[in-house]
Amino acid sequence: MVAAKQKRVRSKSPIVYRIPLVGTPVSTPFLGHEGPRPQLSFVLKTLAGDDSGMTEFHLSIQSVCQTAEEIALWETIVADPLSVQIATNSMVAMMRNLADLWIDSGKSGEGESRMDNPSRRNVVYMPRFETLKKIVLSVDPADEFQLSGWNCFSIPVGLPISNLFYQLIGNEERWPEIREDGTQSLKELIFGFKSETFQSGHRLGLHWFGMKVAMYWFAKLLNSPFSRQLARCDDCSAYFAYERAPKKEIRGGTHCTNCKGQGSARRMKSTRERRTGEMVGFAVDALALWKPNSRHSSRSKWVADQVNRRTARIKVKLGKKSENPYPRITGRWFSQHQTEIELEVERRRNAKG
To answer: Does the predicted TM-score (pTM) go above 0.90?
Structure first.
């Protein structure tokens, strides 16, 4: 009798990791930000001035120390509230700069004709000013750690997000890993101090580190489905989020919940003023054709009738389902706007001359 062939058991090799110079990569959680939009929730809170302790967390997982003296120095730096504040201030300021670049890349026009189209946002948008300006960061003046020379740093503005990405984290080393089934991926990016920065000027290094934290997490938002839900109010400059990303252009400005009523009132006033201006033009056109005779009624009533006929024709062109954008007027309207009409007549006369 032939013995049954035994099934050969293949041994599985574990994942082989390569240890980077800045320490083993760690999957960093969104501290205190759960729910369907954690990236957006975290960015919004940071834009409001609170980084949820993320910068301090990143500092705590750094590994740039080799000797006992370096370890002791690093522990002193991390335990220093001013050092942490420098990194946090830089993180918040850079996050605001990135958010403004991202939001402004979808805007166009000025004043009442401005439009916002989040679907057109892009990371290559270049601000209109070309010279690098500096945003001064400082610890709150009421803070006891306010120290001249230690708390003021600058971040580069006037550069697109794409440039800032490669300047801050795009060139950081990332290590590949291979899984048991042969598939591969890049390990989570963890950035850190370079040894020369650590030795020469750790406070400047902390400043750059804070900017790296901002770029790292804002890039996470850009790589999520929620990046186009981020918005900024044109009235109070507060950052907020749409429930859904707008698919069409937003005309007349972007307004938060607190400013929405004011924005609606301004838009209504602007629309009313624009229509009044157009009707003044119609009245001037009609006034040029008016001739006093027995068949015509008073000048004001006759001009008002001509304006009503013109606006009625506009309504017909717009279609049956459209409302007439112009109100029906009487001779009293002509009298109320006589000053504007006379000024328009004078303006046209001067333009011809």
So the answer is: no
